[in-house]
Amino acid sequence: MLQTEQLTINIGPQHPSAHGGLHVEAVLDGEIVVDAIPHLGYVHRSVEKIAESRTYAHYVPYTARFDYLATHLSVMGYVQTVEKLAGIEIPERAEYIRVIMGELSRIASHQLCIGSMAIDIGATTGLLYCMRDRERIMDMFEMTSGQRLLAAYMRIGGIAEDLPEEFFPAVRSFLQDLPAMIKEYDGLLFGNEILQARLKGIGKLSAEDAIAYGVTGPNLRACGVDYDIRKAEPYSIYDRFDFQVPVGSNGDAWDRVVVRKEEIIQSARIIEQALEQMPEGEVRAKVPRVLKPEKGSEVYHRIESAKGELGYYIVSDGGEKPYRLHVRAPSFVNLMVLPLISKGGLIQDIIVNIATLDPVLGEADR
Amino acid sequence: MMQKIETLFVDLADWFITWLQGWGIPLAWADAILVVVQFLCIVAIVLFNITILVWLERKVSGFIQERPGPNRLGPFGILQTIADALKLLTKEDIIPSKTDRWIFRTAPILFMTISVMLYIVLPFGKDMQVVDLNVGLFFFISVGSLSTIAILMGGWSSNNKWSLIGAMRSVAQMISYEIPLALSLIGVVMIAGSLRLSDIVAAQDNIWFIILQPIAFLTYFIAATAELNRGPFDMPEAEQELTAGAYTEYTGMRYALFFLAEYTNLVAVSALASTVFLGGWQGPWLPSWMWIIIKTYIVLLVFMWVKWTFPRIRMDHLMSFSWKVLIPVTLVNIVATGFGLYIFKGIGG
């Protein structure tokens, strides 16, 4: 028998597929993965601690930097938590605008997930197609808030400003073109046999394991668990919309990506309905300039972000700043199944697994 | 006039020989000098061709990906490659401390040398061939397969784990794909009855071999893509997995040499495809050397199209595809060609 040695290699933190500062220590036997351990902390900014020295309103832009690929959803989670804590009611129109922006963010995030999955397995053109379409959403964000990526558009008690006139034709034409975009992804990526061979049966995660690890979001639904906070525990105005929750069956990389693709279509349906139902009126409630929630009050609020269950836990000591703020980041929890699903696969499958778990490191390290 | 253009390069060579003889150099010596000059010309052509090719690849990928591609430097950004080459030339040449220096230094040069050697047997036009070997095709395949050694040398001597994995992949892949590559050409050799490339071109006087051997062309094309380390078979480089695989530690001109050699190989393999399957330099109206350029570029564009459309195949799928699909198909093709020839000769003779 030939003497062989195991090889430890570090994928990241500087690596083309590291998704922004992820470090995976991979132990290899030839090309076969014996172990893959994610190491986090390369983009740690102690943002949770910073919250303790900022007022509630000042902290809004910081939350935009958690999940910077679906920035509106990150901010939405925070402002809703504060509103719950302080008992603020916000105008109808603001709720609708929040939903529209949030779902647009979800579409952008899923498009980027599909695109980065494509480039991580060598299909460069797939990324460019997804980026081209995501660009239109970014333009819409720029119209509304002046910011493309880190748009802190929402405020405690509503949103910063009403939607501009040119936003409506832009979003309508985007929704109109969306089926054609999905068809293009189907033709270029999902219909490709090499891609199917790369994704199907790779990184299988069972429903039991997923629940045990606390995996949420599209990654959980890919395992066949029908769980979406928008349906299970409707927040904001999500109970008014008619949409489905796409569910996979195998929990492999293929299902994880296909579920995201289906979610894009469902998000578009929500936006369409929201645009129809949206009432006229104010977009911002009267909120005291300095917010001082009751002493000792604490609240945990969770929303379905693009990556999974995004929860904020805030404790107030009666002052104008939070006493403690904690973020339950879906990317962090989802990443923890990486060793489980990568073991026994090939080194190329680690890359696929990272890409399809779709972590955002700005959220995993806070 | 047409005749002049047709034999332009042949006339030039003849004039060169006479010119040398005018200086009192014996014919044998003059021939030897001519071979050297021809070799230098090949290097010049190759380098010039690559500058165009890299630009073309970027433009084609830009077209496929709905973006403009290089468009700043010169008309349509055509000078971009030259600027990039200059940049690579002036970059710091880093040799990491724990490398095997001599092997590390030799690998890119060896790779480039091997690639240029491929051109010696290629017929660029009527009577335009540096050496018309009677085993031309065999020479091409055997020299072409040497490039594995260069990649292995580069990958192993770098003392980098990524490079080592890249080099290992390269060896496994090239050995697996060498076989279908050679086997797919055997059908053609059987029909032409010769390994000499000029004979193979002459045999396609009436009908191109792509029509007689379509399956062979397809298998040749796939195996050649793998042989060239191009997408979707770019395992040894695999940017998104192995950073740059065997080339990770290379910088500056040494990296550029690897890069250039890959393109040199690409042109050589495309030129062989057009020689063996697409009738070589034969064609109406235009001079013969123009035809080979046109055909080679058509094959090149197909290579680019494939690269920018497909994702990278997985390593184990790649191996099983070669051994379980490509090799059986090529073997069946050889048997079928044998039967076909037997029946055809039976009717004819």
Q: Based on DSSP secondary structure assignment, what is the total number of beta strands of chain B?
A: 0
Between the first and last Cα atoms of chain A, what is the distance in angstroms? Answer: 48 Å
Structural class of chain A: alpha+beta
Globally, the shape of chain A reads globular
Contiguous helical run count of chain B: 15
- Content-based structural category of chain B: mainly alpha
Q: Which stretches of chain A are poorly predicted, pLDDT < 50 over at least 5 residues?
A: none
Number of separate helices of chain A: 15
CATH architectural arrangement of chain A? Orthogonal Bundle
Q: Give the rounded overall mean pLDDT of chain A.
A: 87
The radius of gyration computed from the alpha-carbon positions of chain B, rounded to a whole number of angstroms, is: 21 Å
Helix content of chain B: over 70%
Total count of strands of chain A: 8
List unreliable stretches of 5+ residues of chain B.
Answer: none
Percent strand of chain B: under 5%
Give me a quick take on this structure.
The complex is a heterodimer of chains A (366) and B (349). By secondary structure, chain A is of the alpha+beta class.
How would you portray this structure in words?
The complex is a heterodimer of chains A (366) and B (349). Chain A is an alpha+beta fold and 366 residues long. Chain A is built from 15 helices and eight strands. Chain A has one domain (43-204, 236-330): Cytochrome-c3 Hydrogenase, chain B (Orthogonal Bundle), CATH 1.10.645. The termini of chain A are far apart. The model of chain A has no long low-confidence stretch (mean pLDDT 87). Chain B is mainly α and 349 residues long. Chain B has one domain. The longest helix of chain B is centred in the N-terminal third of the chain and has 38 residues, at 27-64. The mean pLDDT of chain B is 82. Chain B has 15 helices and no strands. Chain A binds chain B through residues 7, 9, 15-17, 28, 31, 118-126, 128-129, 132, 188-189, 192, 194-195, 197-198, 346-349, 351, and chain B through 61, 64-67, 161-162, 165, 169, 231-232, 234, 238-241, 243, 308-317.
